[in-house]
Amino acid sequence: MHELLQDPATRIYVLCAAILVLKMALTGSATGILRLRRGAYITPEDYAFMGKAAAPPDEAVERLRRVHQNDLENILPFLIIGLLYALSAPAFGLAAALFVAFTVARLLHTATYLAEMQPWRSICYEVGQISLVVTTILLLVNVLGR
User: Fold this and answer.
1) Is the peptide bond before 119 cis (omega within 30 degrees of 0)?
2) Shortest CA distance to 110 belongs to which of 128, 92, 94?
3) Measured distance CA(124)–CA(109) in Å, rounded
4) What's the pLDDT tens digit per position in 119-146?
5) Could you state, in order of their start, the residue ranges of all structural domains in the chain?
6) Nearest to 102 by CA among 119, 118, 79
7) Could you give the C-alpha distances from 38 to 42, 47, 144, in angstroms and in order?
8) What angle do the packed helices 120-144 and 92-114 form, to 10 degrees?
9) 7-31+57-144: which CATH number, 2.60.120.200, 3.40.50.1260, 1.10.10.60, 1.20.120.550?
10) Sign (positive/negative) of CA torsion 82, 86, 90, 93?
């Protein structure tokens, strides 16, 4: 592992991956904490266990849950594709730009989603998607071109 971290592209990938995984963990935990604070549970058995009648979904909890779900759908592919791209000996500047763009876009996507800021939420989402698609294409070029 130590040798892998000598490569600058791998190092920037690891930094971005760690930030994104931490962000997902915090978002998931925040969702659970908000559920408990607001008494907005996910299943009928949760309400029964807490001695409460089932209630309609709480919009604040659901918004945070959707942020977390969106992260799962987008960050997990980045973790795989980004690692493979970092291992394909990419040009450092391009790899760094793509990894940082994706990471910043995901952080801003969360902020704009929670703040209900359209069209900024969609713009941040698309920046992340474009970064991921370009990374994937460049990975294929690096692998097929060798």
Assistant:
1) yes
2) 128
3) 5
4) 999 999 999 999 999 999 999 999 998 7
5) 7-31+57-144
6) 79
7) 12, 12, 52
8) 150
9) 1.20.120.550
10) positive
The pTM of the full predicted model, rounded to 2 decimals, is: 0.91
Backbone phi and psi for residue 113, each to the nearest 5 degrees, phi listed first = -65, -45
DSSP string, 16-37: HHHHHHHHHHHHHHHHHHHHHH
Place of tokens 């994104």: 20
- Per-residue model confidence as pLDDT tens digits over 95-120: 999 999 999 999 999 999 999 999 99
pLDDT at 110: 97
Distance (Å, whole) CA 118 – CA 63 = 14
60, 69, 61: which is closest to 41 by C-alpha? Answer: 61
Decide: 109 and 121 in contact? Cβ < 8 Å. Answer: yes
d(CA 138, CA 67): 28
